[in-house]
Amino acid sequence: MDKKSYLLVTGASSGIGREIAIQLSEQYSIVLHGRDKERLQQTLNACNPNREHLIWEYDLTMIDTLENTLEQFLLENNCVISNFVHSAGYFKMLPLKMATTDWYRLSFELHAIAPALLSKVLVKKKINGGELKSIVFISSISSKFGTKAMSAYSASKAALDGLMRSLALELAPNVRVNSVLPGGIRTAMTERTYEDTMLVERMDATYPLGPGNVRDICGAVKFLISEDARWVTGQQLIVDGGRTINITG
Questions:
Q1: What is d(CA 72, CA 205) in angstroms, rounded to the nearest whole number?
Q2: Which of 6, 28, 153, 207 is catalytic?
């Protein structure tokens, strides 16, 4: 029996990952990844019902069993992954004097190690049949610019972009690898940050196109996994409403 092709979206239980999964379900069958089965079911309920979708419940910080678990999932569901979008993430602001080993470890496990290991599985011909065509990592403008109290997040997102560039070379010409770098997006993960009214006012003033939302990221991802981007690899696509060009802010 022929294996069915899917798009894998990690972090599909909320925020940017959920919106990407919902929007792209119009065109693709989706493997919805996350840690919370109930929230994944909510995402599934919002996806295009005319396509077949799967739920993969797994904690990506369990990196020692990550490869075997994904391999088993693909075999059990008789499926392959044609496109991979890594949106799973961890965000917590701490000044350096309060930083902990666990804080740094968790950031790097989710933002750099897990996507590397997932990509490793998906390029194995015996497991995925050489079907993988495109990888998109959801990074952040924090990977390029400094932010107070965000050293773990910024450093791990920079590591993710470094991984992207190396994989783009190593996996060419069969697989294209790119990153999308959002500006400040209000999600459940960042909600506490937006409780700071002064921060919100500053963002309103420094984003030339105004604040963004999760739907603004979906178009960039959709482009990068499409044939319209067939000659695009190793690139950081910034989607930030003009924030990073605003030196007056």
A1: 49
A2: 153
